[in-house]
Amino acid sequence: MKYLVRDKIFAIGDDYWIEDEQGRHAFLVDGKAMRLRDTLELKDLDGQVLITLRQKMFSLRDTMTIERDERPLATVRRKRLSLLRNHYRVTLVEGTELDVSGRILDREFTVEYEGELLAHISRQWFRVRDTYAVNVVREDADTALLVAVAVCVIRMAERED
Fold this sequence. Notes:
Elements: E1 2-6, E2 15-20, E3 25-31, E4 39-43, E5 49-55, E6 63-68, E7 71-78, E8 87-92, E9 97-103, E10 108-113, E11 116-122, E12 131-136, H1 143-160
Antiparallel strand pairs: 1-2, 1-12, 2-3, 3-4, 4-5, 5-6, 6-7, 7-8, 8-9, 9-10, 10-11, 11-12
């Protein structure tokens, strides 16, 4: 299943919809303005918060946390000592690790678990420059989490750049 994201509206305090392949609203990204740290909420069609992304305040490396139901779900950070500049590690609270690698700023990267592709993020399917897709490959994957990971690593890469 592909989800369409429009880049040009990535700003704190801005809200935007992520659409499914048929152009229907799937998730609302609610940017929280007037906060001390970067905070985004991924909401369903009914306005229920599915995932919260927060910039970690006191950290040696740029880090964001992903929360579900106000409890930590995962931590996202740029991988140290990586030959690839755009390589991130997502560590879930139970210890599972997802690898995110590719050209993040070009919107061409993958999310994998132990070498198995979970999601492919790409602009290649679109002529519109400010649009990219999050293609969730596995049907049993946590779609909201994978969309949140894509949004999170792009924000982190943009801040580093």
